[in-house]
Amino acid sequence: MTREEWEKLLQPYVQTVDELKVKLRGMRSEFEIEGIHTPIEFVTGRVKEISAIEEKLVRRHISMDRIEQDMEDLAGVRIMTQFTEDIYKVVDLLRQRKDIVILEERDYVTNEKPSGYRSYHIVIEYPVQLSSGEKKVLAEIQVRTMQMNVWATIEHAINYKYDGEYTEEMSEKLKKAASLSMEVDKLFSELHNGLVHTANEAQDS
């Protein structure tokens, strides 16, 4: 495919990412206006790079005529939270929305991958409005804490540099880092819950 053909194919996904980012950031603003803790810390998004799409087509044996049905992460949005419990609050908020249809959920927070990777993945169908009419596209939303995101970002960079060929020592260090990251998340949650409990006691007294 030419560059122009790729851009035409991916334009609905660019629009989808832009719209979802605005809507999710709007949800965060609602909590901030109310003066209560927001489960959404920040939101990012991207459309998959053409080179990454082509690589995945080969690796997953996906034909071009099936790309929009079989590649669910052409459009990707990531929601970062401060605390692990916020992940599930965000998931509940997404389940209540009427402008998306949730097709699949994968909980790698409770059921982390062998590598140590943790995140909550949601595959959605989103109706994007184009000049030619409505088009329903697939998108993936990832929800994770900032600690989980740091680990995943570093792991991704190492994986890219070494083309997935880890030494046993590297693999063990990544798992150890993932375990430490989980402990940090637990400590932050305990600190947060302790502050909330103290504040509630002060209000009741």
TrEMBL record:
Pathway: Purine metabolism; ppGpp biosynthesis; ppGpp from GTP: step 1/2. InterPro entries: GTP_Pyrophosphokinase, NT_sf, RelA_SpoT. GO terms for molecular function: ATP binding; kinase activity. Keywords: ATP-binding, Kinase, Nucleotide-binding, Transferase. GO terms for biological process: guanosine tetraphosphate biosynthetic process. Residues 45-166 form the RelA/SpoT domain. Homotetramer. Belongs to the RelA/SpoT family. This is Putative GTP pyrophosphokinase. It comes from Weissella bombi.
